[in-house]
Amino acid sequence: MDSVPALDESLKKTVGGSTAKVMADQLGLHTVGDLLHHYPRRYAERGELTRLADLPLDEHVTVVAQVAKAAKKTFNRGKGVRLEVVVTDGSGSLTLVFFGRAAHHHERELLPGRRGMFAGKVSVFNRTRQLAHPDYELLDRDSGAEAVDSFAHQLLPLYPACKQLPSWRIAKSVGAVLDTFEADGWRDLADPLPATLRENRGLSTLPEALRKVHRPRTRADLAEARARLKWDEAFVLQTALARRRYADAQAPAAPRVPPEGGLLDAFDAKLPFTLTEGQWTVSAEIFDDLATEHPMHRLLQGEVGSGKTMVALRAMLGVVDAGGQAAMLAPTEVLAQQHHRSVVEMMGELAEGGMLGGAEQATKVVLLTGSMGAAARRKALLDLATGEAGIVIGTHALIEDKVQFHDLGLVVVDEQHRFGVEQRDALRSKGKQPPHLLVMTATPIPRTVAMTVFGDLETSVLDQLPAGRSPIASHVVPAKDKPRFLERTWERVREEVEGGHQAYVVCPRIGDEEDDKAVRKSPEDEAERRPPLAVLEVADQLTKGPLSGLRVEVLHGRMQPDAKDDVMRRFAAGTVDVLVATTVIEVGVNVPNSTVMVIMDADRFGVSQLHQLRGRVGRGSAPGLCLLVTEMPEASPARARLDAVASTLDGFELSRIDLEQRREGDVLGQAQSGVRSSLRMLAVIEDEDVIAAAREEAVAIVSADPDLTGLPELRTALDALLDAGREQYLDKG
Questions:
Q1: Which superfamily does 263-462 belong to?
Q2: How many whole angstroms separate alpha carbon 688 and alpha carbon 273?
Q3: Is the pLDDT reported for residue 677 higher than 60?
């Protein structure tokens, strides 16, 4: 390399076209800056041997080990030759196998006593774990003798790698870039942290941090580098979020202050129960936001069954009172219909605006879904355009261009993780001015928790269950290890039904032709595991077997909307005993008489999803029971996940477990499109203190200089972080 590359320069010039292609396709690395920020995932000391005893099968691994013995053998009556090299680390051994010419070549290098890094895919042959034709890099080429002390304890960076590009080849590419920057004195490296902040916080310079993270001499070097690089990620992202919050605060919005004696007061007066203290507190926070002249941007987190829908409905009624309209966006037709039904029931004559018998303050509540008949759809669209309908509840059909509002004042998004930002934004753009936004979620999924910890949204929490909610007992049912437990599961379902209650049985897939094609293509199931259990098959087996004589119905996403609605109505009315369903019943479905839920192949669902599903029972006066059926062995991570769900009803605790297991994803929303996470060093759960401190600094800087005119390096770092797609993502939020 003749000249110092720019950070945004393509890797082609630096590492060559073919390597650059692999880095882009397999590792998501496109620029010199990407490569510098591709940090080692761990470090091995040259004097420290990694454990071979724990190597996973069928995974690409990099190990540091020592050659114990090597032997060349012939096969196929002397026509073929192979070299078998046994390497060890004291905990176990591994065989390296080379065939043909490679056997002769590697025999000269892989002598007993030599130590190296070996990379390949772990397989088993004759009950022995092996790497066939592994890549390797010898660490002590001079001799098989003990290396000198400084050499022996040097930290070896092990990078996130891939089959075509082992760790040490990445290390060489990183080293070449570092050498070029070092030779130039790091002149063109923009440091995003203002000098005063860096000094006040005792953080090292960016060149020092990059040098020490890639070439640490000691563990202390590493700690220093990590501390600095975590701050970079937290601070740049916090600045982006602080600028977005600042811009939100400047945007105009119509204040929505409900007058006394209106629709909201009439609704409160007819409620047959008292709101919890938490519901009153959160409502007050929301109404304070609605009264301001900039758009509310609030996340309402609440336990399953804590009464979020009631809080959201009161906010919608307040906006209607103030002359505006409110829209609730639900992720599925089943949920939209359920919400519409329950809102109309709760409001009674207050939902009959313009109708005979409607109350004086009444408004109209309309439903809008993609499968509605043409006449009903036309009427709903007309009611929205004229303002006749104050509240609309619908699916993504609300977003279509034909949908026009008279004066959209509030958008409520239920289960926000089901919607892309573009969908939410399309609905928000339908207001004369930006409408207020209330986002609801029951159990925060990892990305939501991450965004909340990062302070992107104002947050309200409902952690109190309304009076009358019953406790839910949860148990893991190990169907393979203890078949009797599964038999007992169906006995319990029958007992609950005989006691006048109802049950859900949830399965991971439908089991129709289209669904089966998808399953056959699924790479997860190509191994030994059978396909996931299906609604149609399980319902058939239960009807003919352990639940014969009971009224069993199915519900899944490919049924016609009218058929789905019919099943849900009959289940709610108590004329169906057992509903065998997919996760269409995950959120919002409210049948207080349902007391037991059996989740088949529970290990195939995420922690948050299991908690959501479980929240469908125990909604009445009788206690709830949730049985998590699995065939996974006791020591597996999947069982640990199920045990965690069974051990606590605290959704916020479960969301932390979920986040720790799955990491944050990409907090800028790019994970869905396959781009690697923007968080390389920062871990949301572990680094909350860094994030809080970075937020404080970012807010102060943005308040003083919103356009960052005095901090061009920080602006450059923001531009690098927020490519066009991500900038749009943050702007839309």
A1: P-loop containing nucleotide triphosphate hydrolases (3.40.50.300)
A2: 39
A3: no
In the DSSP assignment, the letter for residue 352 is B
Pairing of strands 364-368, 155-158: unpaired
Res 149: pLDDT: 41
Q: So what's the pLDDT on residue 172?
A: 87
H helices of 405-455, where? 421-428, 446-453
Q: Are 432 and 407 in contact (CB under 8 A)?
A: yes
| CATH code of domain 42-158 | 2.40.50.140
Predicted pLDDT of residue 424: 64
DSSP letters of 370-404?
TT--HHHHHHHHHHHHHT-EEEEEESGGGGSTT--
Residues sharing a CB contact under 8 Å with residue 573, sequence separation 6 or more, in sequence order: none
Q: Are 626 and 620 in contact (CB under 8 A)?
A: no
Pairing of strands 502-506, 594-599: parallel
Dump pLDDT digits (tens) for 109-146.
899 989 888 888 888 888 888 988 888 888 765 443 44
Q: Which fold has domain 472-648?
A: Rossmann fold (3.40.50)
Q: What's the token pair of residue 616?
A: 């469908």
Contact, 350 vs 363, CB < 8 A?
A: yes
Return the pLDDT at 340: 92
Quick check: 490 and 547 in contact, CB under 8 A? yes
Q: What mean pLDDT is predicted for residues 57-84?
A: 84
Say what the pLDDT of residue 196 is. 93
CA–CA dist 118, 137 (Å, integer) = 7
Q: What is the mean pLDDT of residues 528-556?
A: 90
**Domain range list for the chain:** 1-41+171-189, 42-158, 263-462, 472-648
Alpha-carbon distance values, 150 to 49, 143, 167, 182, 533 (Å): 16, 16, 22, 23, 57
Handedness of CA 490, 494, 497, 499 (dihedral sign): negative
Please determine whether the domains at 263-462 and 472-648 fall in the same fold group of CATH: yes
The CA-based dihedral angle spanning residues 539, 545, 547, 549, taken in that order and rounded to the nearest 10 degrees: 100
The token duo for 642 is 């199920």
Q: Crossing angle of helices 263-270/308-321, nearest 10°?
A: 150
pLDDT over 70 (residue 64): yes
d(CA 165, CA 161): 6
Q: DSSP letter at 510?
A: -
Residue 401 main-chain phi, psi, to 5 deg: -60, -35
Q: Residues, the chain, total?
A: 733
User: Given a cut of 60, is residue 726 above it in pLDDT?
Assistant: no
The residue type at 578: V
Radius of gyration of the chain (CA): 30
288-340, pLDDT tens digit by residue? 999 999 999 898 888 777 788 899 999 999 999 999 999 999 888 888 888 89
Give the residue from 579, 524, 518 showing the smallest Cα distance to 551. Answer: 579
Closest CA to 346 of 391, 382, 376: 391
Closest CA to 539 of 575, 512, 574: 512
Instruction: Give the pLDDT confidence score for residue 663 in this predicted structure.
Output: 58
- Which residue is associated with the tokens 């970079």? 232
pLDDT digits (tens, 9 = 90+) for 434-470: 899 998 886 665 555 665 565 667 888 887 776 667 7
